[in-house]
Amino acid sequence: MARRRRAIEAGVPGASATSMIERIEQGRAAEVAVARRLRRLGPSYRVIHDLVLPTGGDADHIVVGPSGVFVIETKSYNGKVRLLGDSIAIDGFRPRRDPISQVRRVARMVKDILGTLADYRGWVQPVVCFERSRLERSRFVSGVLLTNPEQLCYLIRHWHSPGLSEDRVEAAFDALASRSREEARIG
User: Fold this and answer.
1) pTM for this structure?
2) What is the C-alpha to C-alpha distance for residues 116 and 104, in angstroms, rounded to an integer?
3) Contacts of 60 (CB under 8 A, 6+ apart)
4) Spatial distance between the Cα atoms of 70 and 111, rounded to a whole number of angstroms
5) Averaged over 1-27, what is the pLDDT?
6) b/e for 57-89, b at 16 or more Cβ within 10 A?
């Protein structure tokens, strides 16, 4: 029964779905939990949640701070995360939508937005945060940081990038926030 439930949550084709509403609520609860965690970063970090992207979809969380720009995709799968080459499996099942490809695509879009609106040419680090899954330790797969909420803020604060000045943090944040407000007016 537990294996079947995890197959359903991973979106395995042919698995009878728990209700779509339950999955949406579970995902939203995970995003809220990660958002609360990100508050611990402190005032030198700015966070935008649910930024609507030009091609559809959204960025769950974007963190802009002295250690750089991070795009965080939150996942709420039940089960143990295992690496399968450049992708993952949850208790042996591959998710229907690969979160690694998903967050890399979103990070590229955020970098394009920042390049256009704030003349930002730095790196945007894609992150997948597994809120309910068991991930033994943080690791990289195809340039994407895989982590859990307990390690997320520490890893962001201690990131090894050249860093951003306070002015660059504000410029990047303002560019993304203006985009967010623009989308709110349109939508």
Assistant:
1) 0.85
2) 19
3) 31, 34, 49, 50, 72, 73, 74
4) 10
5) 61
6) eebbbbbbbbbbbbbbbbbbbbbebeeeeeebb
